[in-house]
Amino acid sequence: MSQVWLLALLFISSLVTSTSAISTSHVAPAPYRERALFGAPKIKVEIRNALPEMQEVKLHCQSADDDLGVHILPFNGTFSWRFRVNFWVTTRFHCQFTWRGASATYDIYKAKRDSNWRCPTYCYWEVHDDGVYGYTELEHANDLVFPWPNPQNSNDTKKGYKYT
Ligand SMILES: *[C@@H]1O[C@H](CO)[C@@H](O)[C@H](O)[C@H]1NC(C)=O
Ligand SMILES: *[C@@H]1O[C@H](CO)[C@@H](O)[C@H](O)[C@H]1NC(C)=O
């Protein structure tokens, strides 16, 4: 096979993002399709409910191509999915989290932010009572925190929340 042909094939196959759901406690339904033949490595994103006192959190993740559906995570439950970053490195999944009547939407995977050093193959998140925590892959260090927008969602006065 000529190198030109191989390059063309590589280009075409990497135009599309491939997403497939895997899950431990929650199985995301079809249609998660395997579209890319080869190209970027598969990335796994996993979100754990680390809320206290056996509380549930509702989440709804989607990208431009895929809606992963609404899932209720029980205490310590996880939701995860796999996909490949597209050719333009614009792949982005945002998730809406709902807990105690308040909702917030955050970028849980952003190829430009995450695909190089932050989490090249495994991106781990935890939902806590003061926000959603992101961890780096190699060091497992918490480097991102998206605080809950609604003060009533947190009793952590040290972080400056006020209760009205
Ligand atoms: C949460 O689940 C993990 C396995 O997914 C387990 O190792 C851990 O002990 C559990 N933690 C709690 C607090 O139940
Ligand atoms: C937070 O504070 C409110 C009001 O005092 C209380 O009703 C609620 O149970 C507390 N939540 C937690 C998780 O401690």
TrEMBL record:
Primary subcellular site in the record, as a coarse category: secreted
Signal peptide: 1-21
Keywords recorded for this protein, A-Z: Secreted, Self-incompatibility, Signal
Family: Belongs to the plant self-incompatibility (S1) protein family.
Keyword Protein biosynthesis: no
Protein's GO biological process: rejection of self pollen
Gene Ontology CC entries for this record: extracellular region
Stated name of the protein: S-protein homolog
Localisation: Secreted
